[in-house]
Amino acid sequence: MSLPTPMEPRDPKEMRASHEDRDRVADALRVAAGDGRLTMEELEERLEAAFAARTYADLAPLLGDLPGYGSGALATLNQALAVPPVQPKDVVHVKRVGGSVRYEGVWIVPKRLDLDMRGGSVLLDFTRATVAGTTTEVNVRMRGGSLRIIVPPGYAVDANEVSMLGGSVRDRSAKNAPPDVPIGHQIIVAGEIAGGSVDIRPPRRPGRLRRMIGRSTR
Q1: What residues does each domain of the chain span?
Q2: 40-52 and 19-34 helices cross at what angle (nearest 10)?
């Protein structure tokens, strides 16, 4: 009786990528864009490629020209993906009377965010945020003030469950959004807002003057 021939080790770059692998590469790309290393057009292109990636070989080139990866992008990627991700909190409760609440830059998004605001405003910027899973819940109870949500490509916001009393919901996140980037994360907003508004939009693109200044300083 012959024994089965043992399988030869596969090349690491041929290993299949998981949803978590794609999400973590996407997070690294968003941080790079927030640091000014990638333009919004480059970010959109690389996010599209990241969400469509099947193997590590597909993911590694997306990080190859970024600090911390370079020519050893595949090895660095394998090492980075082997590190357990930071676990977000299940629920974060925020209560304010006056003032404002701002979540922006690099931050870890809880699975559910409860906002109880009186006369204040809230900014939730997901451009460089780290999310877990495919859904984030935002429950709001606001009297006056506004809720502003900034979402990069690959995100979608559902604010249909918000009860508005004397306010409005304006969603500009789909404006100029690349049609081929799949939705990888959904933000579900529910609750009640009286005398306020909800503004959903993509990250602000650098204006012509800022782009010219940026070129002149290089």
Answers
A1: 12-82, 91-201
A2: 170
